[in-house]
Amino acid sequence: MTALWDLTAHAARERLLRREISSTELTQAVLDRIESVEPQVRAYLTVTPERALEQARAADAALAAGNPATTPALTGIPVAVKDVLCTRGTLTTCASRILENFVPPYDATAVARLQAAGAVIVGKTNMDEFAMGSSTENSGFFPTHNPWGLDRVPGGSSGGSAAAVAAGECLVSLGTDTGGSIRQPAALCGVVGLKPTYGRVSRYGLVAFASSLDQIGPFGRDVEDCALLLEAIAGHDPRDATASTEVVPDFRAALTGDVRGLRVGVPQEYFIAGMEPDVSRLVRQAIADLAALGAEVVDVTLPHTEYALATYYIIAPAECSANLARYNGVKYGLAATDEADMWRAMDLARERGFGAEVKRRIMLGTYALSAGYYDAYYRKAQQARTLIKQDFDTAFAQCDVVVGPTTPTTAFRLGEKTADPLAMYLSDIFTIPTNIAGLPGLSVPCGFDTAGLPVGVQFIGRPFDEATLLRVAHAYEQGQPHAHARPAL
Ligand code: GLN
Q1: Which of 83, 84, 134 maximizes ligand 1 atoms within 8 Å of its Cβ, making it the mutation to test the pocket?
Q2: What share of the chain is helix, strand, coil (3-state, %, to 5)?
Q3: Cα–Cα dist 100/91, whole Å
Q4: Structural domains in the chain, sorted by start
Q5: For residue 66, what pLDDT band results from cuts at 50, 70 and 90?
Q6: Radius of gyration of the chain (CA)
Q7: Could you tell me the sign of the dihedral formed by the alpha carbons of 459, 460, 466, 467, in that order?
Q8: Is 323:211 a contact under the CB 8 Å cutoff?
Q9: Which atom of ligand 1 lies closest to the CA of 316?
Q10: How confident is the model at residue 273 (pLDDT cuts 50, 70, 90)?
Q11: 76 contacts: CB under 8 Å, gap ≥ 6
């Protein structure tokens, strides 16, 4: 019998509604699991057991009183939240020393919507500082370990949220993705992760890294759980001017299992030298499996892919240099109280509070935006951004979804890339174009390499067409034996 912490959210919901289990039992099982595996995995920065059990008791009362049809979709389901999302009354550090003591007075909209849907929030997950990184090693506190190989990284920046789902330390979780931070860790930890269309989910209360790229999205152990979670958090919000008024469809209704006639586009630029052979073999196998299910596979081209990384590493640092200017210890966060001179105190707070990668990004961005360099770098990057977006527009005239690998490699060893920022940046080569174009992207497990590490296949969709991504990923996932594999911890 499946342990309670190992249930998918949708399976747990059925059992909760039938009153076979209570949310208190389910939440306690997850808290016990955290206690037993967390010393090895270290997915959480903060666990909130009292609060979780209190929410679980409230969920049980609602389940006892309520009619199953009107009980909110996540009632009693244990969820973890990346520490870049504000949670009222609970520490929100962004894994940065500069926000070590920051307790927000308000909830992010995505968090408020989880609570309105009845979710039980078990804690805040580890990440790369301010979401800058691909391995969670840039956390200002400690690295997270991959549940499939404890000497490996979980990916990043949402490594804690991905590892927590893979390890059974929550049922589902929220992450954020600016250049791949949901999809890349999902691939490396063998779970499903979805970056919605820019504007699909409100960014209110998401601590900003690069505002034109950041999006919040779900992790789950299967596609249906991601659909469930996305539905709960998506939709317009007057507090975020970029949150779209586009209607939120019933995403679970899209999970028909039928992909006959769906045109799946394979870009040659996503199968490159330097990729691990196991990754390209398993992704090609997934494409063949889709063809066997009746999808039509077509070749497409995304010719400006080669400029995506360079474009991203101008735009994202430029936006971050502006967004992170607010951390100077004056209004909140780490302050240099030992320094009498105001300007020196601000410098010192930043010098002490930010880690090396964050400082590197602030310097890159400040440089790219400075007079004399703006036209050469920032303006050029914006022009390249348009070309990358147009590549996708052209491709989507020929196909309904684009398919390719999520990452060029499986999980690398802790410490392997920390001395080489460029090698680390290359982890996101296949995920970054999606953010640049504002499109939705989803990673779903497609097997294991010869070392037993998970591989992810990525689907990219038209704007606001998460439903098709979920449909194709769900159809693919059915009948795949690896979909039920769990790490031995
Ligand atoms: N790894 C990329 C970076 O370091 C993307 C991070 C993200 O999506 N937040 O910027």
Answers
A1: 134
A2: 45, 15, 40
A3: 8
A4: 4-265+397-477 (3.90.1300.10)
A5: confident
A6: 21
A7: negative
A8: yes
A9: 10
A10: confident
A11: 12, 16, 22, 23, 26, 27, 56, 59, 60, 62, 63, 118, 120
Q: For residue 1, is pLDDT > 80?
A: no
d(CA 327, CA 377): 25
Report the half-sphere exposure of 245 (CA within 13 A, side-chain side).
2
Secondary structure of residue 392 in the 3-state scheme: helix
Q: Please give the full DSSP string across 206-274, using - where no structure is assigned.
A: BPPSSTTT-EEEEEESSHHHHHHHHHHHBS--TT-TTS-------GGGG--S--TT-EEEEEGGGS-TT
CA nearest to 83, candidates 50, 118, 57, 48: 48
**Two tokens, residue 305:** 């892919």
Q: Which amino acid is at 266?
A: V
The alpha carbon of 214 and the centre of ligand 1 are apart by a number of angstroms equal to 9
Answer for the pair 192, 428: CB distance below 8 angstroms, yes or no. no
DSSP 461: E
Active site residues: 82, 157, 181
DSSP bridge partners of 441: 195, 460
Contact 36, 28 (CB under 8 A): no
**Cβ neighbours of residue 154 closer than 8 Å, sequence gap 6 or more:** 43, 135, 136, 144, 145, 146, 147, 160, 162, 163, 166, 185, 188, 189, 411
- What is the per-residue DSSP string for 26-59? HHHHHHHHHHHHHHHH--EEEE-HHHHHHHHHHH
The pLDDT value recorded for residue 479 is: 85
pTM over 0.85: yes
Q: Which residues' Cβ are closer than 6 Å to ligand 1?
A: 131-134, 157, 177-181, 209, 316, 428
Angle at 341 between CA 339 and CA 342, to 5 degrees: 100
DSSP string, 56-99: HHHHHHHHHHS-GGGS-TTTT-EEEEETTB-BTTB---TT-GGG
432 CA closest ligand 1 atom index: 5
* Residue 274 confidence class, pLDDT cut points 50, 70, 90: confident
The values of phi and psi at residue 466, to 5°, are -55, -30
Q: Which atom of ligand 1 is nearest to the CA of 156?
A: 1
Tokens of residue 248, six digits: 């939120």
Tokens of 349: 């707070």
Read off the pLDDT of residues 346-363 as tens digits, 9 standing for 90 and up. 999 999 999 999 999 999
